[in-house]
Amino acid sequence: MADIADTAASEATRCGIDTVEVRRIERLLAETASEDLNRIFSAQELSDSGEGPGRAASLAARFAAKEACAKLFPRELALGLIEPIDFSVARDGYGAPQVVCSARAQALIDQQRIRAIVVSLTHDRVSASAVALALAARSAAPIAGRILYYALPVRRAVILENLRRVFGAGVPEGEIKRLAQAHYAHLWRLFGEFLRFRWLSAAQQAAIVRTEVDALKHALGEGKGVLILTGHFGNFEVATIAGLARFPEMQGRIHFVRRAIKPRWLDALVTRRFRQAGFGVMSKRGSLDAILERLAAGDVIVFPFDQHASPPDGIEVEFFGHPAWTFKSLSIMALATGAPVLPAASWRESDGHHVLRFEEPLPPIHDENVNEEIRRNTRAYNAALERLILRHPEQWFWVHRRWKQVVRRRPAAKSTRYY
Fold first, then answer.
1. Which of 56, 48, 59, 61 is nearest to 19 (CA)?
2. pLDDT at residue 419, rounded to an integer
3. DSSP-based three-state secondary structure for 41
4. How many Å apart are CA 258 and CA 303, to the nearest integer?
5. Which single residue of 16, 62, 216, 321 could bond 358 by disulfide (Cβ 3.0 to 4.6 Å)?
6. How do beta strands 254-258 and 280-283 pair?
7. pLDDT-derived band at 3, boundaries 50, 70, 90
8. Rounded distance between C-alpha atoms, residue 195 and residue 234, angstroms
């Protein structure tokens, strides 16, 4: 146990401590309805604390742990971006306390490159205390990525600038560099998979991909069509073509909206592969009528959403805490048709297998002001992309200039002519 504690202490980047009087929790239990307690403690915490005389002390220790975890993020706590209730305590199979994070807490620790939060709890009859340690994440930089980082620095400045923008000053520069090198290694593997994939048999292709499509099947059952919110994650071509090949009932019902890529021969090759696999391909420009027609037929439209979009196609909304011009067409189509919007991502696991996962649909946001309604939904889509990117950050397309500035041209002044 001492070795484990020493390892955790050496990897800790920050520490939070809190103490709670047991009498405070006793008053809380006496004066608070059970349904209100559920807003403070998780169902697991209430169950683990039991019903006997030690319940207040047990819950006091858990409350101290929540406070200690929140103190790991003083800036976000002050801004109201995180609260103690975003953390709860569960027990593992050996009885050791484990921190369980809410979705927004998990996104925060992912963005700050925290691998885990470990806690230690103690209490007596008078008070309870907890200590929380944040353990730093350390990206693995394969040798291919390290070589390419120095030998072929294509857009290296862009990659580093994007990583610094997303992960901020709180992440050490060494970790930013390792993430960049891990991304170069991902691009190298992407290139090799692209060349090798076409020579694999159908059985070999199916064997390298795991597909989670329950959310997609359920959404298709609503009969309104489905809009897929995605980005340039993992090897999306391999995961999509091989993964969805297992579901012949979806053949001809999935259509990709995409920009042409350069060079032309590569764009033609990618397009041909998608069509041979039974997928439709639509241009991002001039395809609105065709998209609406396919949605009315109950089909699936896959919309890559992580690229820069200048006006009039885009609007400026927040992406990782910075203004970014983002396509507004997805929210317009979703609000006009009622089609559910499902986030989807793919990634490569450490053993080389790929995963394609469709998530639960995002709830639509309604507002009396149409422009504000479009803006709020577009921001929600960016927030969904943020969560997907942070799960496997080295496998997102960091070479893209996502935060390009838009120069707004002023209308030319009208000249006055005198006769």
1. 61
2. 33
3. coil
4. 7
5. 216
6. parallel
7. very low
8. 15
What is the Cα 67 distance to its own chain's centre? 25
**pLDDT at residue 406, rounded to an integer:** 81
Residues in the chain: 419
Q: What is the pLDDT of residue 418?
A: 37
Strand 254-258 relative to strand 300-304: parallel, antiparallel, unpaired? Answer: parallel
Strand partners, 322: 319
Joined tokens for residue 114: 């925290």
Tokens of 152: 């072929």
Helices (H) and strands (E) in the chain, counts: 17, 14
Q: Give me the residues paired with residue 14 across strands.
A: 134
Which residues 6+ apart lie within 8 Å of 308 measured at CB? 314, 324, 325, 400, 401, 402, 403, 404
DSSP strand pairing (87-91 vs 322-327): unpaired
Identify the three-state secondary structure at position 199. Answer: coil
Q: Where are the domains of the chain?
A: 2-136, 143-188, 201-395
Burial 120-151, CB ≥16 within 10 A → b, else e: bbebeeebbbbbbbbbbbebebbebbbebbee
Q: pLDDT tens, 116-156? A: 999 999 999 999 999 999 999 999 999 999 999 999 888 99
The beta-carbon contacts of 157-164 under 8 Å, at least 24 apart in sequence, are: 158/398, 158/399, 158/400, 158/401, 159/183, 159/398, 159/399, 162/398, 162/400, 162/402, 162/403, 163/398
Residues with Cβ within 8 Å of 377's Cβ and at least 6 positions away in sequence, in order, are: 331, 334, 335, 364, 365
pLDDT, tens digit, for every residue of 292-334? 999 999 999 999 999 999 998 999 999 999 999 999 999 999 9
Could you please state the CATH topology (level 3) that the domain comprising 2-136 is classified under.
Answer: Ribosomal Protein L22; Chain A (3.90.470)
Provide CB contacts within 8 A for 154, sequence distance 6+.
399
